[in-house]
Amino acid sequence: MTRRDLTLHLGLIAGLFALHFLLPAYHHGVFARVMVLAVYAIGYNIAFGYTGLLSLGHAMFFGAGMYGVGLASYHFAIPALPAWIIGLGCGALLALVVGLLALRTEGVSFMIVTLMFAQAAYLVILYYSEYTRGDDGLVIPGDMRAIGSWDLSDEGTRYLLAWALFSIALMLSLWLVRHPFGRVLVALRENEERARLLGYDTGGRKLAALVISGTISAAAGGAYATMFGYVGASFAGVQYSIFALLWVLLGGAGTVLGPFVGVLFMTYLNDVASGVTEAYMLIAGVVLVLLTLFAPQGIVGEIRRRFWKDLP
Amino acid sequence: MTETTSKTKTSGLIQPTRRGALKTLAMGAGAAATMPLWARYTSAQSAEPIRIGFGKHATGIGAAYGRWYERTSVAAIEKINGEGGINGRPVELVTEDDGTDPRRAAEVLEKFANQSNCDVAFGTLFSHVVVGAAPRAGELKLPYFVCSEGHHVASGMLNRWTMQPGITDVKSQISAMAPFITDVLGKKVTMIYPDYAFGYDHRDNLAPAIEAAGGEIVGSIAIPPTETSFTKYFPQIPRDTEVIYHVMIGPAVLTFVKEMGEFFGPSRPEIFGFIDSLEATDLTSPGLEFLDGTYFWEGMPRYLQDDAPDYVTAYRDAVGLDANGASVSDPSDVSTSAHMFSCWETLHVIKAGMEAAGYQSTEDRQALIEAVEAMTLMEAGPAHPGGTKMFNGKTHQVFGPQYISKVEGGKLVVQKTVDYEETMYPDEVDYTSMSF
Amino acid sequence: MKHETDVILSTEGLGKSFDGLRANHDIDFTLRKTQVHALIGPNGAGKTTFVSMLIGRLEPTDGAIWFDGRNVTQMPAHKRVAAGMGYTFQITSVFARLSCHENVALAARRKQGGDAAKVEQVVADALSRVGLADRTADVAGDLSYGHQRLLEIAMGLASAPRLLILDEPTQGLAESEITAFKALIRELSAETTILLIEHNMSVVMELADEITVLNFGEVLARGTAAEIHANPAVQAAYLGTEAS
Amino acid sequence: MEFGPYLMLAMLEGAVLAAVLALMASGLSLVFGVMRVVNVAHGEFYMLGAVMAWVVTQFMMGLGGGPAVNFIAAAVLAPLIVGSIAAAADVVILKRLNYDPERVIVATIGLLYIIQQAALMGYGPDAKPVVAPFNERIALPWVAWGENGLEMYYPWGLSTTSYKLFVIVAAVVILAGLRLFMTRSRAGLVMRATQLDGEMATAFGIPVERVYAIVFGAGAALAALAGVLIVPIQQAHYLMGGDALLLSFIVVIIGGLGSLAGTVVAAVLIGMSDGIISVFFTPTLAKIIATLAVALVLVFRPQGLFGVKNR
């Protein structure tokens, strides 16, 4: 890890901390949400951006974390932190099972298989509505939304926790991609056969990457549940899988900062657009098409291509 | 009313420590950029309009409701402003699309509370959106008036900041309908309902209500909310069914009712439906002829009734409804009459609450909630065209009259009105004992 | 079983069919340590099929492969590489969007693990041996075809195999580069065993200690350069066609 | 309802779904077969077909046409319009991506939102009906062993409509026509040649780019036609493409990617089982089972249930 890498990423983290004191209330709330969703995008980026696994099913991992936390808190009165760890476990386990099956396929088939698994997971949530309350979702009881004396429904605490989670995920992802393990993931993405014939167990690495990715996604889902107090099936729907893809592509697939930039950019784009038209998702569509046509590397990817060649 | 908590001056915006830090920073030269924003907070003076945030289902599966909820709300605000506003201040409706999506709805509440500086939020219909957004309202300490008819408010799953003073919940709607169904239509009832929370309110409450009225449920058919073809479900209807009880929601409602007609052909049992199955849908659509002679629940009559009082016609004119309950400018644009009146009434409740609380600024939000909790009888009239209602401050739920209408010549004609007294049930929660 | 101590790789009755079509049939093959062994044969003789089975890209239909005294027939490719086999592709297959350094480092790291300093040393050494020391930072995809082939070889070197399989390494190289390549192989042969699949007869004749000739998926002949050169069957099947 | 008539009704309903699915999925399959790309926006072309049918019939109603004339106009115009839009999208977007499979997926996800949201803006968020050209209820008889031996009677509820039968017949005719076109006509041969080997086709002077645009347009037109056929039964709504897309994916995968015959067989299988499974299971559980089954088919038998391993 070079000094410049560290300065840049720690700089962002410090900046976000400073924003805690500077942002007006509304944007303060938006940033808290953006940071949690950016953790989800960071998770997705490890599978898609670094390892080249085009998944359309990551919402199931986000959902696994969310429902792991939600069901534990709602039905068993398990407090926030242990519930969150349960959520992580659910995501990791699901990613392992899905990975063992789905990674037997690749490319387009992998995309469809993950899509189908996620759809099945979504339907399972609806099917067990007795426990999950189906589309309606669950409101996490207020007393479960605290870690010790920190009240997660408090705006300031929430921001700082979102910030802490985001910082850990960001640095973890930076460390990972600079680590030899991460380098091999990139090699897999670029040329799997070659990587295999360099002696790397490509199947095992892909599975590991997917499990890491799924676990981080679940961490975000679980955090979202406790921080915002609501667990709903729509978060596990196909749209949230597409969102992850969109954010990462927009920010820059295979860049450490890309996921955050993508979520931030898209959030504000939607926010502005929804004031102009009801069809604000139109913007998402146009952005996706323009990106694939003109900037397949995304915002941070373009910066890397033009200005900063070894940006992680 | 039990007022155990002393009134604390909460800003409802940011925790005090952060605010302190902000102020300190704002005094420094470097933070000049944040000044205009502060100016906005502190200058919320009496000349400012009262802002009411309206979370509109503009897109997604609730869009037809959203459009009419907005029209009704705009008309109500116009009336209120015409009569001098609230506490002498004009009222302004701030509309945001929530996409009929819980996450978006929660964000919209944040926008109302923190960005557009709304005094209250209101207007959500779909129950999953209400359930998703209500916790945020509680955290933001933003009074949240929903118009949803879901049992979620009165069941106690929400919080002190969320109330439903404009529309009766499903549980009491059903208890009002059950005696009519068993007495007039038949004892053996098969129910068809959407397989999601709104449908569960029906599922869970109909059976006891029908049994209490001397009937029985012989069949219960849940249909997934995304379903687009329904015929294959109808064979599950037991042959000895005397009454079909149906309630459906979403874009496929017309298909549902049409295919039900095609299934039964000439030998249909009695049919009793919640008008939700045909809200925003023209009763004269091809394929619906078989509905003639069937019955519907209505929260407020869609068609102009012969004996309609003046305040009802005034309400209908203000919203822009023709005699058939469609838009005066487009007869094919049918309204959601049975639900949208709740926006009108809720806005009048907000007005009455603010006046009772002497509402001045967002600092008085808690007083507003307490003022509404103190309300009881709401007399029928220009503010309550849907009929005389009783508000229960403990459960945050209103109880109003329910209408049973029969389809006659393609129009709904009210057969029976059930007064609010017959719709009450024992309290399941006491929100007033909860802290703010 | 014939694992004499100086044999690094051998096959017994190795065969491969694609939908009933026999690409390789009953190949017995032995490779001695520190030999440069060339595998030749006309186009379509089954050379690439054969080496693909050796490295584990293809699963054989019949027969067995022994590497270093172990039966590796069922072993996945990456484990064979870990066990000491190295392979360079016939069609250039570098990581086109990564730098030359990273390409070679990927090859070196599997063996060197987290020892960053050692990896750097191996990478620098491998790149300089193939003459790409000044292209370290360049993106591999931007290199000329010949340089990409050299990069392939550098990757093979960096993974420090005990057996290096080179599939048509000189294809597309300029004459001067071929000369350098020959020198490199001579130097390498002191430390590692090399299996060379080659079309260029001058390379084969100059470098190979032993030659195996494949024809129609079967072993046609085996021997030193001189023996093969003199073999009438080979001349008929191969050198003859080459000459015409 | 007794079991026999119930099953019969479920099968009739299943046949209608199968007919629509077969049309829609053959469009997806055609595109995949020839161009080797997955069109994620396919469901939106289906939706657009339904919406266009509404637009055309509204327009024709303004001209005073009867339901039958209006419907015929819609059935001709809507697929043409949608096909042209798709062909344009191919030229403007997909061609520039060199039909790279993964980038096409991302671009067509974008296209999905563009079409869906454009429909929301132009057509609105409501479901709107199109009047069927004809729609008589047809009560169906059933036989049972009664006192006097085999008796025929009309069970309660066992019925269909003339329009639903028409949809089934129309789909069969269109698919038969498509098959004839692909196997007998020159254009069909050109498409199949392109499918086998794009580079070779170019070498033989086939204008591959134009073929691709036409194929992409034709695939979308088939989906649009499915939309036109379904709209008198279901109404047009801007979100109707999502579930239809998932079902088509399922059909195309079960049938073997790119195989037209397999697609049709799979559509019948899926359509029928959707009807029949609902006799035995709750619909959500049935969907879970079906979705997982499809995923597992792709994992363990990637060539589909009816496909032959080729590549």
Descriptive overview:
Chain B: It holds the Pfam family Peripla_BP_6. Chain B: Belongs to the leucine-binding protein family. The complex is a heterotetramer of chains A (312), B (436), C (244) and D (311). With 312 residues, chain A is an all-alpha fold. Helices cover 75% and strands 3% of the residues of chain A. Chain A has one domain (3-243). Chain A is globular, with a radius of gyration of 19 Å. Chain B is of the alpha/beta class. Chain B has 11 helices and 17 strands. In chain B, the strands form 3 sheets. Chain B has an 8-stranded mixed beta sheet, sandwiched between helices. In chain B, a hairpin with a 2-residue loop joins strand 16 and strand 17 (411-418). Chain B is globular and about 65 Å long. The model of chain B is unreliable at 1-45 (pLDDT under 50). Chain C is of the alpha/beta class and 244 residues long. In chain C, the strands form 2 sheets. Chain C has a 6-stranded mixed beta sheet, sandwiched between helices. Chain C has a 4-stranded antiparallel beta sheet with strand order 2-1-4-5, covered by helices on one side. In chain C, 45% of the residues are buried. Helices cover 40% and strands 26% of the residues of chain C. Chain C is globular. Chain A binds chain D through residues 54, 101-102, 104-105, 107-109, 111-113, 115-117, 119-120, 123-124, 126-127, 238, 242, 245-246, 249, 277-282, 284-293, 296, and chain D through 38, 93, 96-97, 101-103, 105-107, 109-118, 120-121, 125, 242, 246, 249-250, 253, 282, 284-285, 287-288, 291-292, 294-296, 298-300, 302.
Distance between the termini of chain D: 49 Å
What kind of assembly state do the chains in view correspond to?
heterotetramer
Gross morphology of chain D: globular
Taking strands numbered 1, 2, ... along the chain, how are they ordered across the largest sheet of chain D?
A: 1-4
Q: Which residues of chain D sit in consecutive blocks of at least 5 with pLDDT less than 50? A: none
Greatest interface: A-D, 42 and 42 residues
Mind summarizing the main beta sheet of chain C? 6 strands, mixed
N-to-C SSE string of chain D, H for helix and E for strand: HHHHEEEEHHHHHHH
**What value does the Rg of chain D take, in angstroms?**
20 Å
The helix count of chain D comes to 11
The overall number of domains of chain D is: 1
Instruction: Name the helicity range of chain C.
Output: 25-40%
- How many DSSP-defined strands of chain C? 10
Distance between the termini of chain C: 42 Å
Output mean pLDDT of chain C: 84
Helix content of chain D: over 70%
**Strand percentage of chain C:** 25-35%
What does the overall shape of chain C look like? globular
Biggest sheet of chain D, in brief? Answer: 2 strands, antiparallel
Number of strands of chain D: 4
Q: Strand sequence of the main sheet of chain C, in spatial order?
A: 6-7-8-3-9-10
